[in-house]
Amino acid sequence: MTRLVLRGARHPGDVAMQDGRIVAVGEVPEEPGDEVRRVDGDIVTAGLVNTHHHLYQWMTRGRAVGCDLFGWLTTLYPVWAKLDVADVHAAARVGLAELLLSGCTTAADHHYLVPHGDDSVFDATAEAALEVGTRLHLARGSMDLGASDGGLPPDHVVEDLDAILASTERVTDRWHDGSRIVVTVAPCSPFSVSPELLRESAAFARSRGLRLHTHLAETREEEADCLARFGKRPLAVLDELGWVAGDVWFAHGVHFDDAEIARLAEVGAGVAHCPSSNARLAAGFCRTPQLLAAGVPVGLGVDGVASNEQGTLVTEMRQALFSARQGAERPDALMPADALHLATAGGAACLGRDDIGTLSPGARADVVVWPADDLTDVPDPVDALVLGPDRRVRHVYVDGQPVVEDGQVLGMDLHAARVDLGRRARRLWS
Ligand code: ZN
């Protein structure tokens, strides 16, 4: 196939792609037959990796704005319970397109709400990813503790253990290809699932070579709930169930103490850091500098738009830097290059991938071109991208194929999709 050369970027120079892979970076001499695209003055990065999202939550933006996590959940569960499969598909299309325009080429969607047991919501999300052109880590979420069992969600959005396991197997058989769509087994959180579900989920995932994901150590309230129910802190509860291991990454990880951070590092379990969501819900400061110093894989997550209010990933780099510095009260707690690392290679490590998240020969050609003509006075291009004004991409490639050209998601009327989604969201509240 023809080699495509992006030529003249301010950072990191030229980037050449062929047969879905990056083949050269820096100064790339011209070869006969090259297709050349000038990107003079732009900044080029690897596609960003979003390690934790809930695409369906787009439909409940701007609600429960003064609540903490438990208050927010109890306000929104009855509304989310009205979602149908077409809503989930519509939210996933818009959400993935917005992520793509913010540089995200790989997203992990943690969907744990299955109204009336209809698990075609997972098919709808996978189909949306194929339509939009992003890579998707399809986290088959689940809950089996409804209100009548002392859980927070209404009974009709939770499932029983056998149904969850059978569906997870079906979704894996249908969608898991290990590259464009990667299935992950993802019970929701220690306070919404039973220990049996956690144990059986881990056994299934390991029998199929899938990774595991769940929310953990997000709030002090969750910690108190675990102590009351199990007499142990959240990480210890999961450790006992075989869930603290190198094939697991946890969403949030705000309240890990030093010994828990050492335990995560010992086994290589990762953390999806969601700084805007943590700030919005007043969850606390994730101890990102300590996690990184210990060698824990850390990536960034948007989390759902209902707790972030934006569905963009590039902005999480700056928020991660601000949160780390505020939490540690140190100006060097997280540098812009560290923030870019979290959004790329760090996220890829959480997802267990070494084929994405870097601009290096041999990596998959997931490549983002950022317009940077307003940043020419900022000496360092990475500082400019992380700290500068919010921006949208100019071009995006996934597996070397264009998916965004001149700021437009190809093959999609995003305006019409947004209008349709707004109509669907208003219905939920009527
Ligand atoms: Zn979440």
Describe what this molecule looks like in 3D:
Helix 5 links the parallel strand 9 and strand 10. This protein is α/β, with parallel strands linked by helices. The chain has two domains: 4-46 and 359-409, Urease, subunit C, domain 1 (Roll); 48-350, TIM Barrel (Alpha-Beta Barrel). An eight-stranded parallel β-sheet has the order 6-7-8-9-10-11-12-13. Strands 5-14-15-16-17 form a five-stranded antiparallel β-sheet, covered by helices on one side. Helix 12 (314-328) packs across helix 13. It contains 15 helices and 17 strands. It binds zinc ion (ZN).
Strand content: 15-25%
Which kinds of small molecule does this entry bind, naming each only once? Answer: zinc ion
> What distance lies between the first and last C-alpha atoms, to the nearest angstrom?
53 Å
CATH architectural group of the largest domain = Alpha-Beta Barrel
Structural class of the secondary structure composition?
A: alpha/beta
CATH topology group of the largest domain: TIM Barrel
Structural Rg: 21 Å
Query: Which regions are unreliable across 5 or more consecutive residues at pLDDT < 50?
Result: none
The overall strand count is: 17
Strand order in the sheet with the most strands? 6-7-8-9-10-11-12-13
- The helical percent reads 25-40%
Q: Could you give a short account of the major beta sheet?
A: 8 strands, parallel
Which superfamily, in CATH terms, is the homologous superfamily of the largest domain? Metal-dependent hydrolases
Total domains: 2
Output the number of helix runs: 15
The CATH class of the largest domain, by name, is Alpha Beta
Task: State mean pLDDT (0 to 100 scale).
Answer: 96
Overall spatial form: globular
